């Protein structure tokens, strides 16, 4: 593999609205991020992904963009953004932004002009179709519930497509004029000095233009819109001759000339397409390992999902993914982000939460092959937050609650599903200290602060050598160390002890050097018969590694790294 500048980095996602508020209005901002750059540098972060800060009505918390060239006043000014880029570079850190180009806001100038003249040039920037006898073109259900079709404002005979909220009209990538506008905007930001993008919902930009009905899969007599993407990819022309045409053009016009780092949000991925998307000549530098984080989702609605990730199911998904990628590509490893529940709550049963389990989870993520993405608060073990129904802000949570009720779940069950799965779990304010509002703001926070901030916060953990935060610092330093940095970056990944229940182990190998990571991801002591002899233990999350002959005794959630 050709070595790239980003291969040996550690990335960190910031949800600006909830990271740090510098002016007391209850909303995090760019100046707040600037003030915490030294904290991130000390943690060991190299790349910072900033979730959307563009002007937006905030129907979907910034993922409905009304101006691609601006900064929303809630977050600051363009001068603040320039200063953030500059200050990050002073610390050898790179900024990547969110690129949201499957859809825009219904308050974007393009959509307003499309409404004024649906058959004019801007009408072709969107998917506008005729309503026949007031009937929608098909039965597709949007990601956030309800039809993907909405009547065009001012014209009862026309409707427009939205895969997400009605306020997020989908952009028509079939139109070359629209694509030119997008490339111009992307290059504007890259020329400004950002290092690349996390690319939102990019697999959705190619539509099934037959607009055919799909098999009903819910009580609303609709079919989930993701099924149309599945079918499109399965058909001839779904990739290289379909969406691949757009993605190659995007790469060649924007990313390659700037040597950008790009990480795609790619769901509905087929295993045989991984090389095409992130291989040597892939469309993106990397993409998120969703096949591992999604492996617990079963059933028809949130309440039916498994309560926690099955460790062996997770292990199997990771091993399959790593085997598929081999030495040809890097995935971005994650255990949580702004669209997922907290990793410490998903992977770890509530009564097993603690330093051992959270540090084991951290080690298994960061010692895999790939570029690790941490999410704000992950480094201190932040957890899901209990909300009352009226306290939720997330549009997806409200829709999912109603869907669970339609599926026959009780209000108590539906609220339990929200507690475990809501996106608001990872959007609660960052817990900086034990002062009012967790030190996030001197005003009223835009979203509820998790009540456990008195026990889980940065200031407290900075003072404790054995804290989760300081463990993350040691772990990242180990991953980047002169002695082990190369093997933990470019070394191969080989599964170990695959049939051992709740033993998650793998080997990293580079030339003659070998490291083996062994973790007992359970709350019970385990005996492991060693397959190889090891000369030295080089990293642990818990002390007192016990070996008796060819047997190793692993304490609950103990993780060790041994060198051959």
Structure description:
It is a single chain. By secondary structure, this protein is an alpha/beta fold. It folds into 3 domains: 11-101 and 176-473, Alpha-Beta Barrel (TIM Barrel), CATH 3.20.20.80; 109-161, Alpha-Beta Complex (Oligo-1,6-glucosidase, domain 2); 491-563, Immunoglobulin-like (Sandwich). 30% of the residues lie in helices and 16% in strands. It contains 18 helices and 21 strands. It has helices at residues 16-19, 30-35, 37-43, 78-90, 109-116, 176-192, 226-234, 239-258, 274-278, 290-293, 311-325, 343-346, 355-366, 395-406, 411-421, 458-462, 468-480, 485-490, and strands at 11-14, 47-50, 94-100, 128-130, 140-141, 149-152, 155-161, 196-200, 223-224, 261-264, 286-287, 332-333, 371-375, 492-496, 503-510, 513-520, 526-529, 536-540, 546-548, 551-554, 559-563. The strands form 5 sheets. It has an 8-stranded parallel sheet. A 5-stranded antiparallel sheet has the order 14-15-16-21-18. Strand 19 (546-548) and strand 20 (551-554) form a beta hairpin. Helix 6 (176-192) packs parallel to helix 8 (239-258) and helix 13 (355-366) runs parallel beside helix 17 (468-480). The model has no long low-confidence stretch (mean pLDDT 95).
Write the layout of secondary structure elements.
Blueprint: E1 11-14, H1 16-19, H2 30-35, H3 37-43, E2 47-50, H4 78-90, E3 94-100, H5 109-116, E4 128-130, E5 140-141, E6 149-152, E7 155-161, H6 176-192, E8 196-200, E9 223-224, H7 226-234, H8 239-258, E10 261-264, H9 274-278, E11 286-287, H10 290-293, H11 311-325, E12 332-333, H12 343-346, H13 355-366, E13 371-375, H14 395-406, H15 411-421, H16 458-462, H17 468-480, H18 485-490, E14 492-496, E15 503-510, E16 513-520, E17 526-529, E18 536-540, E19 546-548, E20 551-554, E21 559-563
Parallel strand pairs: 1-2, 1-13, 2-3, 3-8, 5-9, 8-10, 10-11, 12-13
Antiparallel strand pairs: 4-7, 6-7, 14-15, 15-16, 16-21, 17-20, 18-21, 19-20
Helix pairs in contact: 6-8, 13-17, 14-15
